[in-house]
Amino acid sequence: MEKRVIKKDALAGIIKNISNDMLVYAPVQDEDNVLFKVLEPGMEPLVEYANTKNAPKNFFFPQTETMMKYFRTERGRELAEVVEDAADAVLFGVRPCYARSFVLLDNIFDDPKYKDSYYIARREKTVIVSLACVHPPYTTCFCTSVGGHPMSLEGSDVVLTDLGDVYLAEFLTPKGEKLIEKMGNLEAADEALDAKKQELSDTAEKEIKSHIPANDIKPWLDENFENPFWDTIHRSCLACGTCTYLCPTCHCFDITDEVKGEEGRRIRTWDSCMSWLFTMETSGHNPRTSQKERWRQRLMHKFKYFVDNFGAVACVGCGRCVINCPVNIDIRKIVTDISKL
Ligand code: SF4
Ligand code: SF4
Predict the structure, then answer these.
(1) Side-chain half-sphere CA neighbours of 255 within 13 A
(2) Where are the domains of the chain?
(3) pLDDT, tens only, 301-334
(4) Separation of 141 CA from ligand 1 center, angstroms?
């Protein structure tokens, strides 16, 4: 693994330089929010920020995308697949929990049996550069309860750790190493910096204040599809979908056709299991009759079905659903309550 040192005040300039010849997605200030956006000329990437409002999953799995186009000809209907020519890109400034979310999403979109060419094309061309959480930003962070760590390397190509006056840059993958030459002359890092990083890592872990028994509830979920507990969590839910749209690991989508005259396109769009329409069948029958069934599905999918299928819970502990739910439904409390049953 290659390691280099980046001066603190040089990092934003380095990222802007890279954006001259590669697509760069970075956190930027947008009114009251910090959002991941494509870095356009004149835009300033944030290197000091707590966390972003949006999770960066949309760069590999956009909110809406065209899958294919079709048109009517004299020979009948013809299809034209839309194959995007993905550009070389850098996704800069993701937190370690998001980097880990891509490892979980790969199970869905890059499975040996089901290859999602749209997701894979962008994913393969993108270098993920993470900023380690030397100080986990929120009391709602619980990454250590779900297999993560505030300074985890999992899922990143490059990890930057703020050591005070410099960043330690660790280039973890061949894709990450290709960025070294684009970053200018960087000093090699000496071993003393590793020791400093380890100290910070231990402190960062202790700064995580929220702990939940996420790995203990599966046996209960396995046995309790029908349990009065499910009547207790959904009552205040507005079905707004905020928790699913902002979640870095939620990945459900709908596929619809839009037709105009002799032409049409097939699009896929993010969908949410919190919506009653999500399971509405053409006949009008809806197997999930109330928000109770929808909330049970959300919990079951993250803490049982995903574990059954892929061996990990589908939550990276970012706390975003906790912070942004308009009625304060807290997934940490639900998991903790289940663990006591
Ligand atoms: S804390 Fe909430 S938003 Fe974050 S990964 Fe877990 S379920 Fe998704
Ligand atoms: S954010 Fe809260 S209110 Fe909205 S769907 Fe999720 S749990 Fe329900």
Answers:
(1) 6
(2) 2-207, 218-339
(3) 999 999 999 999 999 999 999 999 999 999 999 9
(4) 9
